[in-house]
Every structure is written in structure tokens, then in C-alpha cells.
Target: Tetraspanin
Amino acid sequence: MPEDGLPEPPFYYVALALLAGGLTICFISTLGIWATYMPGYILLTIYFLVVLSLLLCECAGGVLAAIWPRCVGLQSARGGAVGALQAYYAVPDYEEFTAAVDLAQTYLQCCGMSDARNYDMSVWQLRRLGPRGLSVPLSCCVQITEDVSYLNPMPVNQSRCQDIQPNPPYRHAPGCLGKLEDWYQEQYIIFMLALFVMAIFKLGILLSTVFSCIRLRKHRQYIRSYIMKNTDNKTNQNIYNRKITAAHDSPITSKYIQPNNYYSPRVRNPKIFQGKSNEIV
Model:
């Protein structure tokens, strides 16, 4: 099998790849937020280059998947499917393969790779690894309900399912290879659409980075021009005119108001009117 040389199941490495991708996205997002608030362009440039490299890698992955689907597991091996089924189904140490076949036969409603006769020359049948009296696995039988688990199949009629001649009401007649290829094509389209969406998303991030740099530069130019304008106004202003303008900002009456009796003769010449009453004055 293709995964015989791997120390762990393939999905283990898929999980590690997804974990690494998530951590990379979190790190890049943090770098982008930090670079936006920093005054310089160094972090923004690094952020731009990192996102650009990720975009190019994803585009390269999409091109490889389109040219060579087998490299990402999006193409079935038609030639070795029947041989793998006959050699590894229900064999000890290949429980993952057995569970995968049962899953496909249960949910795709099929039996064998090309048909049910693939099990006649299988190790499972020749060594009697299954229960006695079974010509096909129970996952090939029509189940009572569609939501029955593939690990615990419940056929509608087990005895009729195990007839030598195919019995469509009780056993799935078509093979799984064609349905698996259709499933692979659906997953391939989903994979390509996901790559396209991610590429568009990262392209939007790149454009936002460029716009942030332009906006930051314009903001700095505006601040610099505002400071220079205020400096020039203060330098060209006459200091004497500024003092005179400040002195005449308000009328003199607001600074000092004469009292009501300021022009009274008694108040201005008290000696002349000494001893005289106010009525005479």
C-alpha cells in the first residue's frame, strides 16, 4: 500500500499540516496588525513579502494539483484497487484499510471495487477471516436505515444478502471504483475552489498592505506640511505688530470704568466746598 513506508497513518500528517498552517496564519495576522501601527515601513515590507510568498506557494500547489492530481491523493489507482482489496481486506494490521472499505461500501452503497466477485479470490474469503457463511462483507448489504454505522452494519436480510447471485433489494450491485472516482472529483473541485478563495483573500491582504503604506505616507506628509506651515507663520510674524494687536484686542472701557461722581466739583475740589452742604453745590 502507498502508506506502508509511513510510521504514522496519513491523516496524522494531514493534521500536522493543518496545525502548522493555522499557526502560520495566526503569526502572519499578528505581524500584520503590529506592522500597521509601527511608524516605519520595515515590518510592512516583511509582512508584504511573507504574504506574497504564501500566495505564490498556494498558486504553485494549485498548479501541481491540476497537472498531477496523484501527488495530493486526488486520483484513484484503478489498476491496483482490486489487488489491494483482495490482499488487505480484513487482514490483521490493516484495520484502517478494512474500515475505509466498509465506510465506502456503506455510504456509497456499493460492493467490491468492480463488483462483489472481487471477494471470491480475496484473502478474507480464502482464509475464512470473517464469519462462516459470508460471501460478501455485511457492509455490502442494504442496511435497515441510512444512518447505520459502517462499524456495526445491520442488513435488511442477511441471508438474502449472502446469496450467490446478486440480489439488488438486499445487496448493493455496483462496484465502488466508479463512485470513488466521482467522490475524488468532487473533493478535487472543492480543493481547487478552496485554493482559489485563499488566493483571492491573500491578494486582498496584499492590496490592503499597499494601501496602508500609501495612507501612512500621505498622513506623514500632511503632518510635516502642517508643522512647517505653522513654523513659517510664527517666523514671519512681526513681534511688534503682535504686541500692538494684543494690546488693542479689547476697548479701553473694559479695562477701566470711571466712577459716577468722578466729574463732581465737590470731589475734584474738596477745599473750596468745605463746610457747604450738598444742596448748595
